[in-house]
Amino acid sequence: MDVALLFGMVIALLAIGVPIAVALGLSSTLFLLVFSDSSLGSIAQSLYQAMAGHYTLLAIPFFILASSFMSTGGVARRIIDFAIAIIGHVRGGLAIAGVLACMLFAALSGSSPATVVAVGTIVIAGMVKSGYSKDFAAGVICNAGTLGILIPPSIVMVVYASATDVSVGRMFLAGVIPGLLAGVMLMVTIYVIARIKNLPKGEWLGFEQVFSTILDASWGLFLMVVILGGIYGGVFTPTEAAAIASVYAFIVSIFIYRDMGPLKGRGWLPEAEADTGLLGLRIIGFTVVTFLLYAVGAFMMGASVMVAIYAAAVFLAVALVLGWAMARAVPAGQGLRLATGAVVVFGVLPLLYAIYSVLTSEVTGLFAVIQIIGAVFVLLLPPAVFVFSLVRGAQRLQASGAGFGTSLAVGGKNLIRANAENVVFAVPALFHRDTKATLLEAGKLTIMLMFIIANALILKHVLTDEQIPQHITEAMLAAGLGPVTFLIIVNIILLIGGQFMEPSGLIVIVAPLVFPIAIELGIDPIHLGIIMVVNMEIGMITPPVGLNLFVTSGVANMSMMRVVRAALPFLAVLFVFLIMVTYIPWLSTMLPTAYMGPEIITN
């Protein structure tokens, strides 16, 4: 009865418009003062120490900061250009590209609202301009933006891991297959609608444009490698990965893309020399990047830095020959033929050898597939991007009328100049108004989220003291509740709660209640976590408190009810997806189990 009163207070406060953090904290405080021997001082101490021991929560402010820099620093625009170049030519391609862009940005940000803002600001306006209805565009982005909390890294997954003491790394791995599946289901739905309604399609821009956009977006996309590769390569913990991601995002946004900060508007090549120096800049720039990557690898493996010097020297020699040949082949109309041959020699042949090695080794099943996919990204994609970037550089060089030697000189000169500017403006960039504004926005969001979690943890403390999870577990097991029925109840609770509460706060409250029951029923805790995250996805696009609805409404300049109606067709897809994730456990558990072994729970 006492606990019913506690939850009644929470619901009543939320119903009259009290902020969720205050509703949770005030209800818990009043309950402790009336029904326990706790003093007001001890409650204040509990609030102050609410997050003691929850060290994984330190990842949240860093992921939020990285997301803020990525949203402001031009990464989203480059990712959208890449997505359009890949799939924009099919029927409904711009909408499908919007989903792909959301998936890619989700793998950088860990936040659904940030994904909607970063992608929706550009894509919704572009879709309307291309002939799509505004409602359709808003519905697509509102739903696709929810992938921000499902595709790793995910802030909500960090909260669940902290609330239940499961591995953050396992949760991130578990979100990969469901995240990709949800994105593909949305894309297929859009394509079917596009065929029925004869929606617009773009033009195929050619492989040069595809690889050029990959090159432009590569610095942002490489953050996925930094985060996930670092975690599963054993280089750093998820919390350390989040901190490194925020520093990396700052460097890329300020000094490489230069879309914010003191260097905003200063390109790596002056406009007057852009055509002449692009080919030379790419040859020398790729050589520098090659040296840095090998140097980092040598340092991590304890090898000599001479390895990096030799690798960069070999790369430079090959790049000079290939660049010179490309500068001669493009005017003769043989640029694409030379590029294809170079990709075969430097990419396809090594890839085929790697695939042969995997297939003839003792590695089988999922690990073999993962190694082959990794080989494609490591052995084929970089040479293809580099070679086709030389094609574009040679085309620009032909338009300028200059020679290959001149391009090298101009590109090298401007590479030195641009890096000198980076050094000179390194300290001012820390105090620039753009940096301050980004830090302020990230700080405000962090404080809001952490305050909700802190108050939710007080409620969790009350529930633990009253042994509510144990009583509920005993009651459900005594009633003969099985795994299927239990998961139906969990989904109903989360779907209803998700309509009224912020995801992180709801998970901190519900996870400790359902976690012991799930363990008793033999449900994998990682599987349970993904189910909860998918429910939070749906909660973010259902009224009255669906956060993505408000964000999309602001981005698209539409009323919230209009956004709700626009999102409904795609919301049905997410409901089907929720059923699949709930009752096909291997979607969530296959990767974590294959890579890290079975989950071991100690009660």
TrEMBL record:
Part of the tripartite ATP-independent periplasmic (TRAP) transport system. Keywords: Cell inner membrane, Cell membrane, Membrane, Transmembrane, Transmembrane helix, Transport. This is TRAP transporter large permease protein. The chain crosses the membrane at residues 47-70, 82-106, 112-128, 140-160, 172-194, 214-235, 241-258, 279-301, 307-326, 338-359, 365-391, 445-463, 475-497, 504-523, 529-551, 563-586. NCBIfam families: dctM. The gene is siaT_1. InterPro entries: DctM, TRAP_DctM. It is a multi-pass membrane protein. GO terms for molecular function: transmembrane transporter activity. Its main location: membrane. It comes from the Bacteria. One of its GO terms (biological process) is C4-dicarboxylate transport. Residues 7-323, 426-587 form the TRAP C4-dicarboxylate transport system permease DctM subunit domain. It is found in: Cell inner membrane. Belongs to the TRAP transporter large permease family. The complex comprises the extracytoplasmic solute receptor protein and the two transmembrane proteins. One of its GO terms (cellular component) is plasma membrane.
